[in-house]
Fold these 4 entries.
Entry 1:
Amino acid sequence: MSDTPDFVPVRFAILTVSDTRSLSDDRSGDTLERRIRDAGHQVADRRITKDNIEAIRAIVADWSKCDAVDVVLTTGGTGFTGRDVTPEAVEPLFDKRMDGFSHVFHRVSFEKIGTSTIQSRATAGLIGGTFVFCLPGSPGACRDAWDLVLKDQFDIRHKPCNFVEIMPRLDEHLRRKSD
């Protein structure tokens, strides 16, 4: 008998934040969707929205309340230009921040693009029981974030630990408040 658990598919929603992209030319969203599906997971929803705090926040908030979504991935809007507002839109929604994601993402990114990684404000956290990751808008950054950080964390077979095994307990703090 094997001690390795069976694979558990996770449901992802992908939001591309861009003033210039559409679904037909969204290479970053395509990169994430392909990798998620290739890993055996599901894409529950995929959208594009403009660089607008209220629009980004509304979509992420809705998805975080949706039973069909376990994880939200945003791509785009994490830089420093005046239009880059994804962290400002999403971070106020976090119940818990995941500072470790940003650290690991920057370490991985540094190996690929050197000090240019400091131009990203990649961030992550929990909203209720939903994981949220805000990734840069380049296909390369999305590829690196998935392949080198997130893919293993969303595979229950990854040891010593992974996100999938703790997913049933992510909203304990919310349930405790209502007891």
Note: The two ends are 39 Å apart (CA to CA).
Entry 2:
Amino acid sequence: MDNFDAYVGLDVHKDTIAVAFAEGERSGEVCSLGSIPNETTAINRMVKKLAVRFEAISFAYEAGPCGYGLHRHLIGLGHVCDVVAPSRTPVQPGKRRMKNDTIDALNLARLHRAGELTYIWTPDATHEAMQDLVKARRISSHQVRKARQRISCFLLKHGRRYERKKWGHRHRVWLADLQFGHVATQFALQSYLNEEEQAVDRRAQIDGQIENLMSDWVLAPIVRELTALRGLDIVIAAAVVAEVGDFARFENPRRLMSYFGLVPGEFSSGSSIRPRGITKAGSSDVRALLFEAAWLYRPKVGQWSLVRQKDLSQAAKDIAWKAQLRLYGRYQRLTQIRHKRSQVAVTAVARELVGFIWAIARNAEGEMAVR
């Protein structure tokens, strides 16, 4: 860890920022500077005040709803700023817990100086915009599912059933032709159908915005290479890359599997070994997308995948084919030979799929570095 003259802890809120600093020496002073308004002018004034006393300053604050604007601003002023993972901030066991903004800022400064904080990877403005789009897309997909569920429950209540594939053109024609005895019932169904149609349109608009933003995103080549994998379209690949960011910070694929919470947990003590299910760390939404992709694996390229892979690198296509062979075989062995439940087998497939994602992404990052 680099040596600085001062380590500054910031407890950031919507309206205020509590500021504290710890001098660079291990036994140096730890002091609170009070609270300042969360405004650019006040932040600049605070930074200038510290710069008069200290030459090299390192700032740290916990990730939260205020985003990364403060991080970018402090970096722009020429200082070092790290964003901390709140869930991994150490807490002394047995010590009575007292919490307020001043104490939190003092603890951040002290732990920042000691090097005991866990820092997260911080995205640039374009990457954060992609994360916002992916989140909006996830919410819109949830709204589509809820709208369709309401329609299905409504039809079940009135004894109307459709036995073929749902939500295609024929199903929508069947829904449009439904007739009920009371005009209020007809109006209720139409309102549900309008809601579903609007949700689908919003999701399609967000998909278009994701495609448009790809041209300005430095990680777009990685996203396109990942689409060589079966089950990963442009939206799912963008969600994975937006969540991970820099794949180089994971030195091996198992680290990435652990990041997505797909590795088995354990709760053991002494001679008692108690395995658990997967840890479920990280983003539950991206993990759900990986499960969705894992259900599609079988050893076949398919016409649509063949067209999609046309402009991709040969290395990505080779890795994607290895993934199809291995993951299909993995699923078959687990379900047919070891008689595991399909959910358990798909979890194993999703875990190994992350390994192939890591391989393609690291290869793409190497090609981007050469360029």
Note: The CA atoms of residues 183 and 189 lie 10 Å apart.
Entry 3:
Amino acid sequence: MRHPDPAGAPARNTRPHAPAIPMRVGTRGSPLALFQTRLFLDRIRAVCPVLRNLDAFEECEIATSGDRAQEKRLAEIGGKGLFAKEIHEALLDGRVDFAVHSLKDLETELPAGVALACTLRREDARDAIVLGETCRRGGFSGAAWDPFSALPQGALVGTASVRRQAQLLHLRPDLRCEMIRGNVQTRLSRVASGEFDATLLALAGLKRLGLEAHADVILDEEEMVPAACQGVIGVTVRADDVELRELLTAIWDPASRAVSLAERALLGALDGSCRTPIGAHAVLLPEGRLRLTGLIARGDGSFLIRRRVEGAAGDAVRMGRALGEELFRETPADVFA
């Protein structure tokens, strides 16, 4: 079976590997992470019928540093790679055979020996506003076309994302943003209890958990540029594991691959961390074209630029790098501090 990208194909001198059954899949233990892992396993069973009637997989829940440290922003404790660090370690030392991630949580440069083997079809990449009871009682105070009009003057919005915070404050400097961490259910409960007037969540996670009804306002990708690879599930393996890499090639969604390459290239060109508000969203157009939107901002919303490019989908990486470099040139140095 040929790899879809010759540059990413296993090298000829890598060792063949016939994985033992059951194969062990590493995952975080949150309800969303477990759902995404089972979605991936259902997909691979559909492609490989011989695995359907076997106990072919064993889920291995791995607690990550990002899961354990819930009281601080990720930027303060080491960045989004903390959601994958221990999973990478388990993969490299052989405790798991492959691992399932939200691709937006993976570093743009993976550790030596770890390879991205495939991505699944992207779920809805948009963000959604979840309103508390106070906002619902107040109704929409602005024009119907203003998606932020449901947030009253001075509303307290809970978010751990500097990307969301920057875009919100750029449009609505009257709002107050405070840090909120935890899984999707925890964040919903903190809004429902009145601790926050509202929060923002990825619509993909709400849909996958059957909680889409909590999405009171769905934000267009141009109103709130999503995080790079939001809504994409990625699977990692050991780089020298030829058999698994070739097996997983069969479920690599070509559309998600193209948009992910562009968005991750943009992020890499900006050397973005959790301290830097960066958005990236690519979409495939007819006739093999790709449109990429990139955004960078200051955390308080006082500076924000958004740029867009179009080109051939086969040039996804080049487009992402070029747009990232353009954004970098137009951004004040303090934004990256």
Note: The longest strand covers residues 289-297.
Entry 4:
Amino acid sequence: MAIVAKARAVFSPEGPFQPTVIERRDLQPHDVLIEIQYAGICHSDIHTARGEWGPVRYPLVPGHEIAGIVTQVGSAVTKFAVGDRVGVGCMVDSCRECEPCRKGEEQYCSEMVGTYAAIDRYGQYTQGGYSTHIVVHEDFVLRIPDSIALDVAAPLLCAGITTYSPLRHWQAGPGKKVAVVGLGGLGHMAVKFAHAMGAEVTVLSQTLKKKEDGLRLGADHYYATSDPETFAKLAGHFDLIINTVSAPIDINAYLSLLALDGTLVNVGAPAEPLAVNVFSLIPQRRSFAGSMIGGIRETQEMLDFSAEHGIVPEIEVISADQIDEAWERVLASDVRYRFVIDIRTMKTE
């Protein structure tokens, strides 16, 4: 008998969210049933649901920052037991055989299955974490350390790993000058991680209105990009720039801030193309790169690193009835710094 979950879904690109019921698959031998307690709201949810990244099948239940409790396990599950505190991020399966999968970089598998808006190996359309329950193969479930509360754990599964992964890959650490463009849901996590890794951290934001927050979160410096002097003063300064902004910016201006062999990594994903002048790259052997989330192994490493260093996102918890309002506030950059839905509010309605 199929597992029934309450959910909130959009039925068109315009929304709004409506209560609905979805079916989860019966547990296969390696599956884990998770009772979701919290789900973070990611800008990706909005882009996807509104069709900005391509056609979408409706109704759609977004959400890939999931934290909850294991309530049932399949007959062959060895990694988890009933009662475990767990999380699910942006993917729920991959081919397991290609080179990225063998390297533990499942996020780059061409057959990676997204937590929502994808077709899984059973031919089902995946639905995400704005729901009370989810069934996931144990290989794509993360263990949440006891010292991290479930509400703040949820955004680590996307915002956390999306910023942690490029910082690790490009070796942020002592002696490295790292800039973070934008102090939002992704940016504030990038600042915390880069600081904990020992890098010298600078925030580049449109204005100085969040300067106090940026310095409190671990930034050493904070500059307003609306001030033309900023780009003159910081020219050729950074080893690594993490761009977290999901809107078009003048990439060439930011590339000019890179030192010799510096790299600008895009983790924000605007719907519009970004124009790059090749002469922004050639003179200092600069690189313009992109990065997704991390693999399962690296995501668990990130969770353990967060527990060790006391790193958690700053959140605002909302009820299921407030999702539409929260989305509008995300688009207006009116959140410090991540919305998290208390999924338990779906159960009492």
Note: The mean pLDDT is 95.
